[in-house]
Amino acid sequence: MPRPDRFRPALSRRARLGAATVAALVAGTAVFGIGQATAEHSVPRTDKEIPNLTQVQDKIKAYYGDTVTADGEHYASPRSNYARQVHGIEAKARAYLTKALAKSTRSGEKAKPAIVLDIDDTTLLTYNYELQVGFHFTPESQDKYLESTDMDPVFGMNRLVNWAHDKGAEVFFLTGRKEAQRDWSVRNLKNVGYDVALDRRHVYLKDKEHPPAYLPCGAACTTIEYKSGTRKHIESLGYDIVANFGDQYSDLSGGAGDRTFKLPNPMYYLP
Questions:
Q1: How far apart are CA 259 and CA 55, in angstroms?
Q2: Is the dihedral of CA 65, 147, 223, 154 positive or negative?
Q3: How far apart are CA 191 and CA 150, in angstroms?
Q4: d(C-alpha 147, C-alpha 170), whole Å
Q5: Cα torsion for 92, 254, 113, 36, to the nearest 10°?
Q6: Spatial CA neighbour of 161 closest among 248, 256, 261
Q7: CA-CA distances (angstroms) from residue 169 to 6, 38, 104, 118, 159?
Q8: Beta strand ranges found along 105-210 (DSSP E)
Q9: Interior/surface letters 212-245, b for 16+ CB within 10 angstroms, e for the rest
Q10: Which residues contact 149 (CB under 8 A, 6 or more apart)?
Q11: Strands of the 260-262 sheet, one edge to the other
Q12: pLDDT means per 10 residues in the chain (271 residues)?
């Protein structure tokens, strides 16, 4: 997010710790089943229907295997339940892509296979930033962080992306980060091992000042309109998007992609 990419373009569109996700965390249920991470708009009838925020944050930290360095920085553990869940999703994606990319090669179709990936909490992990700001995103704190700090890759995603590229997939990054954050985003992706093309033809950021002509909604696009419209544009260039990866359902909705892979994210919700 800063989705920045959630790092998302506007704080008002960032419904953090959505009640549905929060309730699932407090109850100890599976947070990422079908239909989870959706916004809850009903008004609680009593305080008993509202989970304790501190307890929710503690559960999030436990899920990510919160590790604190000597200088007070927070990082997710590669042995955490979060990492374990991500690796399971990656294994399914690799098995699918092995067949999909081999089929594309054998068929000799004109459309070149491609994969599209969100950035925040899909390819780069925002956990350290979220802990620094106390899960309170602001555009200013996002800019300051991205300018000076590289986020870690989501566990194993750099290896999966590089493998898919070696197998013949063109790789595109599609993020809700603003255009002004391009240099920082590209630097970060490169520094943590995404060994693929990172030029303007392969990394799409949201440009509200100069929206592209292929988006009829212009600067007023919703996340779904912006992302699905950009995927359709990519396919119009002669690519078949065989897989689309994102941590929000809004990353994955709207078509233009053969299969979607949802990465876990209990920290915020983006419609």
A1: 35
A2: negative
A3: 8
A4: 27
A5: -10
A6: 261
A7: 26, 31, 10, 16, 14
A8: 112-117, 170-178, 203-206
A9: eeebeeeeebebbbbbbbbbbbbbeeebbbbbbb
A10: 128, 129
A11: 203-206, 170-178, 112-117, 239-246, 260-262
A12: 42 43 37 38 86 95 97 96 98 98 76 97 98 96 98 98 98 98 98 98 97 97 98 97 98 96 96 91
Give the DSSP letter of residue 32: T
The residue among 106, 117, 71 whose CA lies nearest residue 242 is 117
DSSP 35-80: T-S----PPPSSGGGS--HHHHHHHHHHHHT-EE-TTS-EE--TTS
Distance CA 205, CA 230 (A): 10
pTM of the model: 0.85
Element (H, E) at 244: strand 239-246
Q: Which residues of 154-176 are buried (b: 16+ CB within 10 A; e: fewer)?
A: bbbbbebbeebbebebbbbbbbb
Centre a 10 Å sphere on the Cβ of residue 24 and count the other Cβ atoms it contains.
20
* Cα 66 from Cα 119, distance rounded (Å): 21
Cβ neighbours for 109, distance < 8 A, ≥ 6 positions apart: 240
How far, rounded to the nearest angstrom, does the alpha carbon of residue 192 sit from its chain's CA centroid?
16
Bridging pattern class, strands 203-206 and 170-178: parallel
Cα torsion 181, 186, 189, 192 to 10°: value is -110
Closest CA to 260 of 81, 58, 93: 93
